[in-house]
């Protein structure tokens, strides 16, 4: 349906007709729908706040959600939102012009959290944690103001795997970004529909569609961040053993509490002989 030039959402206008691109697009749509269904994200007639940074992941997220909605497979209302955090050099007109051209309902919010982060974080420390908390708080507020039941983020498979590794190496816990959670206040869902989608696919898709990418280094992206180190390590493993990332990701979906060491997850004390595992 969407490949008919007379029946296509503007987000897909000019989509490549090559077999390779069609397979890529089909794969992203399949994995996104799989995550939405598997983690129970759909509340009929709900409204989602779809968060856009202007990076490859958020453009892919917006496009695939609209494709699913266009097909009648996502019965929710979508509101795109960009939070302009006041970073020097941020091209403030790019996203509003793009969304207007695409006919996508949206809200652009300006909040100078950049100045707060620069004031509060000591020289030489990373900005990401505080910046993320301030951004999240503003997005929750906007979602409430707009009558949304969920905040939808563009984190993909590789983000989830990297976060798991960071928690493993630096946090001393087995945890990652869940595909679905409820915020601390208990009034909003947070969804990550791209949870099964590879970062490489997001990059290939957004480049093929020639979306106006906004660089992610406007705050002076700091070298040596833990996430960059983990990414480099995973890149090395993937280069030597193609498919390693996907195998590691699948392991997150196949946890066996009885074969870990957390007595809060498995009652070792009451385990008795003769019980089958």
Summarize the helices and strands and which ones pair or pack.
Blueprint: H1 19-38, E1 47-51, H2 56-70, E2 77-84, H3 94-102, E3 106-110, H4 113-120, H5 128-145, E4 150-152, H6 157-171, E5 180-182, E6 189-191, H7 199-209, H8 226-240, H9 244-252
Parallel strand pairs: 1-2, 1-4, 2-3, 4-6
Antiparallel strand pairs: 5-6
Helix pairs in contact: 1-2, 1-7, 2-7, 6-8, 6-9
Class from secondary-structure proportions = alpha/beta
Strand content: 5-15%
Tally of separate helices: 9
What is the average per-residue confidence, as pLDDT, rounded to a whole number?
89
Sheet of most strands = 6 strands, mixed
The ordered H/E elements are HEHEHEHHEHEEHHH
In angstroms, what is the radius of gyration? 20 Å
Distance between the termini: 48 Å
Principal-axes shape call? globular
Please provide the count of β strands: 6
Sequence stretches where pLDDT stays below 50 over 5 or more residues: 1-6
Strand sequence of the main sheet, in spatial order?
Answer: 3-2-1-4-6-5
What percentage of residues falls in helices of 4 or more residues? Answer: 40-55%
Please tell me about this protein's structure:
The chain is α/β, with parallel strands linked by helices. The chain is 43% helix and 10% strand. The protein contains 9 helices and 6 strands. The protein has a 6-stranded mixed β-sheet with strand order 3-2-1-4-6-5, sandwiched between helices. α3 (94-102) links the parallel β2 (77-84) and β3. The protein is globular. The chain starts with 18 loop residues before the first helix and ends in a 25-residue tail after the last helix. The model is unreliable at 1-6 (pLDDT under 50).
